[in-house]
Write a structure and sequence with these properties.
Helix content: 55-70%
Structural class: alpha/beta
Oligomer: single chain
Number of helices: 19
Strand order of the largest sheet: 6-9-10-3-11-12
Number of strands: 12
Strand content: 5-15%
Shape: elongated
Radius of gyration: 35 Å
């Protein structure tokens, strides 16, 4: 729990004042039954109205003080718990932002969403409850016990029989509750995954008329959460009847036994009334403690899940960087006997013994069959993953010796899956350069062949994007992503099949821009169409994670049978299509 001290320290006063102010309520609750017994025993029994009015006024003042203390205690408890979990959520999100792709692969997106929202919320709720009950429940328990024994020690022995039995029952309930709450949080993960998948891919679902199938998948996940929730909350359901039964049986025993004592003349009626109230307070305090412990078992399951994220070792860091202040200046890229596996093992390699050099300003085309490792290759350049064997040098420096920020600032990427964010087109483009002028943005958008359709919108660059860019076409989305990358002015530009959704004429204009605007930038272009890379300085043909051939379009067309086969088959399809 040491890691949580830093979240408590800034709000230490609230953490202290909340429980202390709740003690005001405790003091009042302990005093009110005694005052009532005094009114009954002395005021009512003797008909002393001034005494009754005086004690009644004292009870009103006590109640007001209790109310003020309760309000203050609730306020500071809420402030402490909300601020604590807000800072924790911020750090948790920051940790996820530092995850490498491999770290992200360890958790599902739905699970991370649950941990950042539902799990943190459960911790907040229990912390708020605990701060309010920290002194209140134990204080009421001890105070009521003392007052009960002072009034009648023999009658108070009844409660000492009940407390151990309740403690055993609570312990049994808590032992059962923890694994059930843990399972419930896991089913929330599963449900969130299903929701996210269905909403992100809603167009695919509808185009294949699979709404019924998705509804059934959701129903199964939802039913799983329902069953897990019922199984866990059945424990809570059991707790209340057990505590109520104990309270009523104990009260009944006290009234019966106390009535006999009153008949024997050893106790006054007012004392029995107060004594009964104290018994209820004792049992209520036990009930409050049991609820705190019960909810804490769920919170502990949530804390464990939060800790799993916080404890993840980030496998891509700057700790061993030998040149942390270095920046990418020219964009020369050299692969030296590079091998890569997603599992970090040399036994299941995705890329094997790759060696080639891209000089500054060159355009490198990368082609190959699906699954040949094209995307994996370019992801190694900005260290989205680390090589398993060999070296990648950028400007003669191993990529592991740069700081991640410096390296990635020098690399622009347009990923295979085009991602835009909610907000305006302008806000999306400024991801490339926050300080870019409007003139620069328009020029870059024009280079990416995006300015034309942007200015056709009524709001132009202030047009709001739907989530994920849902209100633009696939080709428009690609051109916006290219413009965003160009605005970054990178020394190395990576395009991962990023013009597949645009027509050949538009693609040709974009390639022409690369020759002029990005003449000093090293460009890696992954493409399915040879026409997209035939003007490249080098074309790398990947075959099952190995380099099958390297050369210019003319060289490969003249001497590489596999390249010839791809080229002529594509030409034939184009002619048939025409």
């Amino acid at each position: 729990m040491k890691r949580y001290k830093k979240y408590i320290r800034p709000y230490l006063s609230a953490f202290i004042l909340g429980p202390l102010l709740m003690l005001t309520e405790v003091g009042g609750e302990i005093m009110l039954p005694k005052m009532m017994s005094m009114i009954i025993n002395h005021g009512v029994a003797t008909g002393d109205k001034p005494y009754i009015l005086m004690m009644g006024a004292a009870m009103v003042v006590t109640t007001i003080v209790m109310a003020l203390g309760g309000i203050g205690g609730a306020y500071f408890s809420a402030r402490a718990s909300i601020c604590f979990t807000s800072d924790l959520r911020q750090d948790l999100f920051a940790k996820v932002q530092k995850f490498s792709f491999q770290n992200i692969d360890e958790f599902s997106t739905g699970s991370l969403v649950t941990r950042l929202t539902n799990d943190i919320q459960q911790i907040q709720n229990v912390m708020m409850m605990a701060l309010r009950m920290l002194f209140r429940a134990p204080g009421m328990l001890v105070g009521a016990l003392i007052m009960a024994f002072l009034m009648n020690a023999r009658l108070a022995l009844v409660i000492l029989v009940v407390i151990p039995l309740l403690a055993l029952a609570i312990a049994a309930i808590l032992t059962t509750a923890y694994p059930r709450f843990q399972m419930m949080q896991q089913t929330i993960d599963n449900l969130n995954n299903k929701i996210q998948e269905a909403l992100v891919n809603v167009r695919v679902v509808r185009s294949f008329v699979r709404e019924d199938y998705e509804a059934e998948r959701f129903k199964k996940a939802n039913d799983g959460l329902k069953q897990a929730g019922l199984k866990a909350l059945n424990v809570v359901i059991i707790t209340m009847p057990v505590m109520t039964l104990a309270m009523n049986v104990t009260t009944l025993a006290v009234v019966w036994y106390g009535g006999n004592i009153i008949i024997g003349g050893q106790m006054q009626v007012g004392d029995l009334t107060a004594f009964t109230t104290y018994i209820v307070q004792i049992l209520m305090s036990l009930m409050m403690l049991s609820m705190v412990f019960l909810q804490s078992s769920r919170a502990m399951a949530c804390v464990k899940r939060v800790n799993e994220v916080l404890d993840v070792k980030i496998d891509l860091t700057d700790e061993d960087a030998k040149c942390p202040s270095a920046k990418v200046q020219k964009g020369r890229v050299e692969f030296k006997d590079v091998s890569f596996s997603y599992h970090g093992s040399m036994e299941s390699l995705v890329l094997e013994h790759l060696s080639f050099t891209a000089e500054p300003g060159q355009t490198i085309g990368i082609i190959g069959a699906t699954g040949s490792g094209k995307t994996s290759l370019v992801q190694l350049i900005p260290r989205l993953y680390d090589v398993t064997g060999g070296q990648i040098l950028v400007d003669g420096v191993d990529v592991r010796d740069y700081s991640l920020k410096a390296l990635r600032n020098g690399v622009g990427m347009v990923l295979q899956k085009n991602v835009l964010f909610s907000g305006t087109i302008l806000e999306n483009l400024r991801w490339g350069d926050e300080e870019a002028s409007m003139e620069e943005i328009r020029r870059t958008a024009d280079d990416a062949q995006a300015d034309g359709f942007i200015t056709a919108f009524p709001e132009k660059y202030d047009t709001e994007m739907g989530q994920g860019g849902s209100n633009v076409s696939g080709g428009q989305k690609q051109r916006l992503c290219i413009a965003r990358a160009l605005l970054k002015k990178p020394k190395i530009l990576i395009l991962d099949d990023s013009t597949s959704a645009v027509d050949t004429a538009t693609e040709a204009k974009i390639r022409e821009c690369f020759k002029t605007t990005l003449k000093d930038t090293t460009k890696f272009i992954i493409a399915q169409r040879i026409g997209s890379v035939e003007e490249a300085d080098q074309i790398i043909l990947l075959e099952d994670g190995r380099i099958g051939a390297v050369g210019s379009h003319e060289e490969l067309l003249a001497g590489c049978e596999a390249y010839q086969e791809i080229y002529y088959s594509q030409r034939e399809r184009e002619e048939v299509g025409a």
